[in-house]
Give the backbone structure.
Amino acid sequence: MEKNDIQKLYGWLQERVTLVREAPATAIAFDEPGEQDFRDAGFSEEAVELTLGSAWWAEMVTDIVETPDFAEPEEPPEQILTYARDVVKEYVWKRLL
């Protein structure tokens, strides 16, 4: 994958990371895409194979939703959301670049 394709991919995935507003404490949700979601967003079969078909994908998903567990208690929810979205960038960037 080209660098700009990787940037587009992690940007798209980051948008799928959101705060769970109805939770009593800060919680993060990841709207995990399926193969068809990738295709609908214009990504190649290579992108599907390098993400959903990889050993690191499930670990990334877990790390995203567990981000609040590692934040300081006084961290505001929006900052925790930023951290969770950074998890996506780090995983994708390190594994696909």
Notes: The CA atoms of residues 3 and 97 lie 7 Å apart. The chain has one domain: 3-19+31-96. The longest helix spans residues 77-96. The mean pLDDT is 94.
